[in-house]
Amino acid sequence: MGGMNEGGSPPNYVIETEPNDGPGQANAFQDGTNGFYAEIEVAGAVDVFSVDAPIGSTMSLAISDGYGGCPADATMSIQGVHNNLILATSATELCPTLDGNADPDLATLASGGTYYIYVSAPAAVENYALDIVVQPPVCGDMIVQLGEECDDGNMTPADGCENDCTVTPVCGDNSVQSGEECDDGNTMNGDGCDSMCQYEGSVCIESEPNDSIATADPDLTCLFWNGQITPVADVDYYEVIVAVDGSRVQAEVVDITGMGCPASFDSTLYLFNGAMTQLAYDDDDGNNACSIINNSDSGAANLMADTYYLAVHEFGDNGTSAPYQLKVNIFPPGCGDGAIQAPEECDDGNLSDGDGCSSTCAFEAGFCAETEPNNTQGAANVLATCVDVQAAITPVNDEDWFQIDIPAGNPDLRIEVVGPDGVTCGGGDTHIYLHDSGGTLLGEDDDDGDVLCSLINPTTDVFAQNLAAGSYFLRYTEHNGGSTLPVKRIKVSVLP
Predict the structure, then answer these.
(1) What is the pLDDT of residue 1?
(2) C-beta of residue 80 within 8 angstroms of C-beta of residue 97
(3) Which one, 87, 179, 318, 324, has the greatest CB density within 10 A?
(4) What is the DSSP letter of 411?
């Protein structure tokens, strides 16, 4: 600063420190000062200053001589930079000014942090003053700005908006606060967490040690168990008593709100019988990295009346967890349980009408199930008015044959295999074949449908187009012939 005015700097300005021609050497703005008093020593030189601004702030910058006038030496430029991005706004004149109250690039800053101010001139400038004003968002001005959750115009705590403009925590906000045992995002009773955010009778707390079947927490008809994996390698066992043959068990690991997954918790969940035989397992089919054993899982369905055990682990048994909740439901056998039992004709796992299987587990119009034996063309089931047939490939190497009668008019034929939901494949590798009445193979498909399910599509399959009137035969198998297939739906469409 050899050329700095010997009279010194104007009051409340910090004299710049050279070198400061890049962000790594920037002079940092000091709170309580007006800014900097500096010089451009040679033409084209750059001075760099830094200022920290909270999110939602408004910034204003101005260059003067510090005494109410403009620097006399040259036109000057001022430019703001943040996160290596040059702000769109800049100013070049004798007294350049960037007013955050009028310039959107410096108003209500969307990103907090360090901003860099570049000052330059095409000629040397002996003295100039850089004014820096940062106005952070003001809590209590009734304007919700970036960085604020609320602003009710006062600084009164616990009135819904705190004195730091964050929302006052209340029961039902899905966040467990001091004085709350739980918070499931509502204030309803009867869902395990009551209207005062206290556990209801169906919620139980694990009792350590419970790291083996012998020390498992007993079945207390709890719908929810609250537990925590700690210390490292801890395991939590819970007893489940099935009272009725044919029942199904569903268990899910969630957070203490009963909805999400505890932060950073990767759980695994096991279902064992009393002999410690593993019946079902899941890693992360639940929320995020949490586990769920669905009542439709083969090992959790059609259970005999007995005592069973659920075990919660941290994946790898090499970490701990935040508090979690284990939701347990036992479903007795009946319509809607996904298992066909007398006198049911069907059971699609729900009690909805209009989906092919009625709320009383009877087939609706156009829907039917295969009748065994139908493993030869001569024993084929005649579909007649049935356009959606349920069939299973069992035992291994089973084949299911169906007769499809094509009317006059040379229609097309579409055949698709799907899972019980009528849309997705649902597991297994299927194969379908279309034969004429004499048994001659017209065409086949392996997996043109969803995943590994089959689809004969007349749009691309010429052999299914413009069929002459008569009887045709569908042969349905497991693709490799070495496995069984669960119940699937075969959807048949005769298209004009």
Answers:
(1) 47
(2) no
(3) 324
(4) -
Instruction: State the Cα–Cα distance between residues 368 and 9, nearest whole angstrom.
Output: 94
Burial 164-196 (b: 16+ CB within 10 A, else e): ebeeebebbbeebeeebbbbbeeeeeebbbbee
Which of 82, 83, 102, 17 is CA-nearest to residue 91?
102
Give the pLDDT of residue 8. 67
Instruction: Please say whether the beta carbons of 250 and 328 come within 8 A.
Output: yes
Residue closest to 388 by CA, chosen among 369, 402, 362: 369
Please give the DSSP secondary-structure letter assigned to residue 300.
G
Cβ proximity of 331 and 293 under 8 Å: no
The encoded tokens of residue 286 equal 């639940």
Question: In sequence order, what are the residues at sequence separation of 6 or more whose Cβ sits closer than 8 angstroms to the Cβ of residue 214?
Answer: none
Task: Please return the burial class of 374, using the count of CB atoms within 10 Å of its CB with bins 0-12, 13-18 and 19+.
Answer: buried
Cα Rg of the chain, angstroms? 37
Q: Containing H/E element for 176?
A: none
431 bridge partner residues: 477
Rounded distance, CA 53 to CA 83, Å? 13
pTM (predicted TM-score):
0.43
Q: Where are the beta strands (DSSP E) in 54-206?
A: 58-64, 76-82, 85-93, 97-98, 113-120, 125-135, 203-205
